[in-house]
Specification:
Strand content: 35-45%
Radius of gyration: 17 Å
Distance between the termini: 32 Å
Helix content: 10-25%
Shape: globular
């Protein structure tokens, strides 16, 4: 065993697209990995206060979170490289399409397969870390990622995750077990 010290080493990390409108109604999208579900109807984002996205969601009290897919990996990565504070045409350069959410004051990126529409629930700050908790108001999915029973099929989402060890992206998709069933044989 080797000690590596304090590192943010969890794998997999989600690749989340946080979308907001700025003060002029312009679409801003940010790629982030430090977030996730924190309740049945809540999401948590650990985000810097200096991001344009943070300023937008605090002002508008709303945002969307989309699952990035392999087909749009380049655009998703670009949203993590380019800053909305420095490039006001950031979204336009991707040729993606934004639709106004029917449920919150934030954009929905049409090309991403799964989108959570959220309102701002709360914020907190601890030791310089800033957290945003959003309330999930609705979930939108593209028709092509839904199975015959009306459920999201993870293999059709074509999501990818972030690797904190070597800074790579990895496709997700192979089912290897069934939750609340695969371990039953150990219950004896």
């Amino acid at each position: 065993m080797k000690n590596l010290g304090v590192k943010p080493f969890l794998f997999p990390m989600p690749v989340l697209m946080i979308a907001t409108y700025d003060e002029n109604g312009k679409v801003d999208v940010m790629n982030m990995a430090w977030g996730g579900i924190c309740g049945n109807d809540k999401v948590a984002l650990n985000i810097s206060k200096g991001h344009k996205t943070t300023k937008n969601l605090l002002a508008r009290k709303a945002f969307t979170i989309a699952v990035a897919d392999v087909d749009h990996l380049d655009e998703a990565d670009y949203f993590g490289i380019a800053s909305g504070n420095n490039d006001e045409d950031k979204f336009a350069k991707t040729n993606l399409h934004a639709l106004k959410s029917a449920n919150v004051d934030a954009p929905v990126i049409a090309e991403f397969p799964v989108t959570l529409e959220c309102t701002l629930h709360s914020t907190s700050e601890d030791d310089g870390d800033f957290r945003v908790v959003g309330k999930i108001e609705n979930v939108i999915v593209r028709d092509d990622v839904v199975d015959a029973d009306g459920n999201v099929d993870p293999t059709k989402v074509k999501a990818f995750c972030f690797d904190t060890y070597q800074k790579g992206y990895y496709a997700i998709g192979e089912k290897v077990g069934q939750a609340w069933d695969s371990g039953k044989k150990l219950m004896k």
